[in-house]
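quick one, 90 residues, struct below
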Amino acid sequence: MKCPHCQSKLPFSSLKKSFFRPQPCSSCNEGYTVTLSISRMFLLIIPVAFSLIMIRPISLHWGVSPTLMSALIVLLYGVSCLTLVKRAVL
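---
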């Protein structure tokens, strides 16, 4: 992910700390927060629900556990709903 202010790449360790707590960017010292995007979540709910319905026959055909495939889809869905928001650092 990139800083919403200066577009420099942010390290993963600082992204972990910034869930719902503002953190300063290492290059521009402006604040950012990682939050869930509700609009993106609602936009992706139909394709995710469809893929969860269709994953059982596909995973059984491939010889992979349907539970594992469903967990992977839900994990990717959750990660795709994360977004960076500009926030002031206190």
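The beta strands are 23-24, 31-36, 82-86.
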